[in-house]
């Protein structure tokens, strides 16, 4: 519950509690806090049991931790019934990015893949090459658009 509190922070909290409540009232406050936490836990467990009973016998192995999206996704990724590992392994990000780059620059994907497979370009873009359309040419002026 308090995994992220270090020893120095714990000592600081204890000193603050002694200063705020005093050494005489501190044990009573600690008992009240633990009693309250215990009641909250009991209430939570009874609510979980009520929900499980209302859902019926088909949900008897239902875990409330599965409602957390991260836990649900992690559990589903471990379960390979969906075939996600094949999809993940079949997706080549470098190849996809090279195809997108070729499409943006208007190059033929077959010619760039053959040159990148030879190792000369390695999927990089030649920045020294001038664009095919010179920037001096302006698009036609449209008076209606302005």
Estimate nothing, just give the exact number of structural domains: 2
What is the N-to-C succession of helices and strands?
HHHHH
Radius of gyration: 32 Å
Record field, number of beta strands: 0
The helix tally amounts to: 5
Strand content: under 5%
Tell me, briefly, the overall form.
elongated
- Termini separation comes to 62 Å
Low-confidence stretches: 112-121
What's the average pLDDT?
Answer: 77
Largest sheet: none
In helices, the fraction of residues equals 55-70%
The chain-level structural class is mainly alpha
Main location: membrane
Keywords: Cell membrane, Membrane, Protein transport, Translocation, Transmembrane, Transmembrane helix, Transport
Membrane topology: Single-pass membrane protein
GO biological process, one term: protein transport by the Tat complex
Nutshell version of this structure?
With 146 residues, this protein is an all-alpha fold. Helix content is 60%, strand content 0%. The longest helix is centred in the first third of the chain and has 49 residues, at 7-55.
Give an account of the 3D structure.
It is a single chain. The protein is mainly alpha-helical and 146 residues long. The chain folds into two domains: 1-62; 66-119, no CATH class. Helix content is 60%, strand content 0%. The two termini are 62 Å apart. Mean pLDDT is 77; it is low at 112-121.
């Amino acid at each position: 519950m308090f995994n992220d509190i270090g020893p120095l922070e714990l000592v600081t909290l204890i000193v603050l509690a002694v200063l705020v409540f005093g050494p005489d009232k501190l044990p009573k406050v600690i008992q009240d806090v633990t009693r309250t936490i215990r009641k909250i836990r009991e209430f939570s467990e009874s609510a979980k049991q009520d929900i499980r009973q209302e859902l019926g016998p088909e949900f008897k192995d239902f875990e409330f931790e599965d409602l957390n999206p991260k836990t649900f996704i992690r559990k589903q990724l471990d379960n390979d019934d969906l075939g996600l590992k094949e999809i993940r392994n079949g997706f080549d990000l470098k190849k996809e990015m090279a195809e997108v780059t070729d499409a943006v620059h208007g190059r033929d994907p077959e010619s760039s893949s053959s040159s990148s497979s030879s190792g000369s370009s390695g999927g990089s873009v030649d920045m020294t090459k001038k664009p095919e359309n010179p920037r001096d040419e302006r698009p036609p002026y449209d008076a209606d658009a302005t």
